[in-house]
Automatic annotation (TrEMBL):
Coiled-coil annotated spans: none
Organism: Rhodovulum bhavnagarense
Thylakoid listed as a keyword: no
Domain of life: Bacteria
UniProt protein name: Flp pilus assembly protein TadD
Record's signal peptide: 1-16
InterPro entries: TPR-like_helical_dom_sf
């Protein structure tokens, strides 16, 4: 499609009347350049959002070598590496981006994100601390909350999570993270509330459903929550509840929940059957 369109533009230029002025030729040249720029932008979008992540890495690596002074392909490469789950390389790539004179605070936030994915929490914290407080974005506050969590600074974490929720129209992920933070502190009712809210925004978020079951199980509430779920999810949630009950010493309840998990699963549920066999074996011994 690209070549057809470019040929059409060139054909129009070639068919211009002999009296065409220099200004007219300049306009045609600008039109061609606009098409090329638009074409490259479209290709970059495809590579970033649709293409295989490692193919995107190869694409942006090549462009970055061709244009070493251009920050755009460096950004593309860093994002592609993170998307490909090559976090060590991604963090190094983002370090090169933020060293560029055209780097922005958004780039620095993405660098911090890459460092957190790579387990370098202290360095990520330093980068976030250096960003002006007036730079307020959802991603910045979500990362600030995660860093505060890692430092067990609960009040700061809650404040950052609350701000992050306010700055997005799709808060299910950050609500789930906030709920898990509450769960890790032993605030099970607070965690349960946040997981329910996360599922309200995204009924497909199984992680929040599983975390909700953990929060309920920690309170010895072994009933499945009334949320939308598939049969396979129902089986997994029964399994999670069963293991929670067994760990808390409610062995017979756990045994019954394992049987529920096996019955609910539309396919063979090896993990639940193995746990039930191990439970029966320990009782017999």
């Amino acid at each position: 499609m690209r070549h057809v369109f470019l040929v059409s533009v060139c054909a129009i230029a070639a068919l211009a009347v002999p009296g065409c002025t220099t200004n007219g030729e300049a306009e045609v040249e600008r039109a061609v350049q606009d098409v090329l720029a638009s074409d490259e932008s479209s290709l970059n979008e495809i590579m970033m959002n649709v293409a295989d992540p490692n193919e995107a890495v190869r694409h942006f690596s090549a462009v970055a070598k061709e244009r070493p002074d251009d920050i755009a392909p460096k950004r593309g490469l860093a994002r592609a590496l993170i998307r490909a789950k090559r976090n060590t390389e991604g963090a190094l790539a983002w370090a090169k981006v933020v060293d560029h004179p055209d780097a922005t605070d958004d780039d620095r936030v993405d660098h911090a994100d890459a460092l957190i994915r790579n387990g370098d929490w202290k360095k990520a914290e330093k980068i976030l601390d250096a960003i002006p407080p007036t730079f307020e974005t959802y991603k910045r506050y979500r990362l600030e909350a995660m860093v505060a969590d890692s430092n067990k600074e609960w009040e700061k974490a809650d404040s950052f999570y609350e701000t992050a929720v306010e700055l997005t129209t799709r808060p299910s992920g950050v609500l789930n993270n906030w709920g898990y933070s509450k769960l890790s502190r032993g605030d099970y009712t607070g965690a349960e509330r946040l997981f329910v809210e996360a599922i309200t925004y995204d009924a497909t978020l199984f992680t929040a459903k599983n975390n909700l079951v953990l929060a309920r199980g920690a309170q010895r509430n072994y009933q499945l929550p009334i949320v939308e779920m598939t049969q396979a999810e129902k089986a997994q949630l029964f399994h999670t509840l069963a293991l929670t009950a067994i760990k808390q010493g409610d062995v017979e309840i756990g045994r019954g929940l394992l049987k529920e998990a096996i019955d609910a699963n539309p396919q063979h549920f090896e993990a639940a059957e193995r746990a039930l066999r191990a439970l029966d074996s320990n009782v017999v011994n």
